[in-house]
Amino acid sequence: MAARRGAARGAVSGHGLAPPQRPGQDIKQVPGLGYYKFHANAQTWLAARHTCTKERAHLLIVNSDDEFATVKSIWDNYPNLFQDWRNDYVHIGITDLAEEGNFTTMFGEPMNMTGYARWGNGEPSHGKAANCGRLSRTGQLFDSYCTNVLAFFCEQ
């Protein structure tokens, strides 16, 4: 976890770490946790990942109950994004694209090392076709089709 967060938060410059850039607006800083930006403009998982990368961030990876509570408080400001099941989910930075059935963070970190692996009942459940992760408003993780168009969080 420390390596992922360190890599996401700063880049080596000279002899030390350069402070991370905070591009754009609507970024919420939460001391001790990080920086979060909610994107209501729904995209596929890969497009969302690309958007976060352009912002020098990454798709949200939940590491604790406190972090879930933080993103939930931001998400609660958007109660009616969609009029269907998509209203209750966001893309997150977990996938089994590298090895079918073995969900890891997009940095290759095993789920049991993230500090938060609260899968929904029977999840992951969609077999070979569902290779990306989503988070529910209730805090559960689900496998998801990468082509689903959902809102998402970028995290630094």
UniProtKB/TrEMBL annotation:
Biased composition (Low complexity): 1-11
Region named Disordered: 1-24
Xref: InterPro entries: C-type_lectin-like, C-type_lectin-like/link_sf, C-type_lectin/snaclec_domain, CTDL_fold
Stored CDD domains: CLECT (cd00037)
Top-level taxon in the UniProt lineage: Eukaryota
Positions of transmembrane segments: none
Xref: PANTHER family: MANNOSE, PHOSPHOLIPASE, LECTIN RECEPTOR RELATED
Protein name: C-type lectin domain-containing protein
Residues in C-type lectin domain copies: 36-155
